[in-house]
Amino acid sequence: MATAFEEADLRLGLKDGGQEVGAFSVARGGEEFAIHVRYKWARGRGFRIIRIWSGSSGDKTFRNPQSAWRFVRKFDFLGRVTVYPAGDPELRQFVGVSPTDLGESVHLVSAAVADGARPPSAHHANPE
Q: Do residues 51 and 58 make contact, with C-beta atoms less than 8 angstroms apart?
């Protein structure tokens, strides 16, 4: 089973009557936001990360949450787009999240605890 979508997959699926049923973004640092989406036509209940092109290991990332939000909206998704920090334990509730986004939790939480700060929590992006 495929674990990623590219932009062409989304266009084709929507053209054939598919529908996006969920999306969220993962903040991987100050200027890197990755998108995970779920569509009705895809097998399984999991989310898939957006890749640059088919077969690529490179995730499509955005420089700010607004551009990630606009990307999701151009595929007719009108639901909430939550932004999670990489490594947020809440990401584990979703099937199919990129290991990159799950695997950083130890580093982010350890760094935050070492600095005496609380780890960041998820927030919802709605630039309107």
A: yes
Residue 124: how many other CB atoms lie within 10 Å: 9
* Contact indicator for 83, 125 with CB cutoff of 8 Å: yes
- What is the bridge-based pairing of β-strands 20-27 and 81-85? parallel
3-class DSSP state of 91: helix
- Tell me if the pTM is above 0.90: no
Q: Return the pLDDT at 28.
A: 92
| Cβ contacts of 50-54, under 8 Å, gap ≥ 24 | 50/4, 50/5, 50/6, 50/7, 50/10, 51/4, 51/5, 51/6, 52/6, 53/6, 54/6, 54/8, 54/9
**DSSP one-letter string for 24-83:** EEEE-STT-EEEEEEETTSSSS--EEEBSSTT--PBPEESSHHHHHHHHHTTT--S-EEE
**pLDDT over 50 (residue 55):** yes
71-108 pLDDT tens trace: 999 988 889 999 999 999 999 999 989 888 996 434 44
